[in-house]
Write a structure and sequence with these properties.
By secondary structure, the chain is α+β, with helices and mostly antiparallel strands. The chain has two domains: 31 residues, no CATH class; 95 residues, K homology (KH) domain (GMP Synthetase, Chain A, domain 3). Strand 2 and strand 3 form a beta hairpin. Helix 2 packs across helix 3.
Length: 139
């Protein structure tokens, strides 16, 4: 399997500092405000959400395709909830998915979506974290 890398560099103190995260060809600034308030920029949790939604969508597509259901589209939004424990932590993740898959019924789609939620690599990374799924077959 492939090895993937991402980098981050932080400058200064927690509240007054700033940083840059880079993965692949994408680079984004982040600050205390972009992470814990409503400031401009990105944050690690958004990157986790992007990774999870991408991983889930691809895994769901793969398992449906293996059974000869070809998705027209699979769109997933991951909402990452950050809370407190003995420090900040991801408390739960909501996956909201809409897929258009000709010839597939809603019950079978729900089974595929549940399997993807349980088995995509990013979901497995978050074993022990509450991951909620809302999956809707459209079209």
């Amino acid at each position: 399997m492939a090895t993937r890398k991402a980098t981050a560099r932080w400058y200064g103190t927690l509240k007054e500092g700033n940083g840059v995260m880079k993965y692949g060809e994408v680079e984004g600034p982040f600050t205390f405000a972009s992470r814990f308030e409503k400031g401009k920029g990105t944050n690690p949790e958004e990157l986790v959400g992007a990774a999870h939604s991408g991983c889930f969508s691809m895994y769901l597509s793969a398992i449906m395709s293996a059974d000869n259901f070809t998705p027209t589209s699979v769109q997933t939004t991951a909402s990452i909830h950050l809370g407190e424990d003995d420090g900040p932590k991801i408390t739960s993740i909501d996956l909201d998915c809409e897929a258009e898959v000709p010839g597939l019924d809603a019950d079978k789609f729900a089974q595929y979506a549940q399997t993807a939620k349980e088995k995509c690599p990013i979901s497995r990374l978050f074993a022990g974290t509450e991951i909620n799924l809302s999956a809707k077959l459209i079209g």
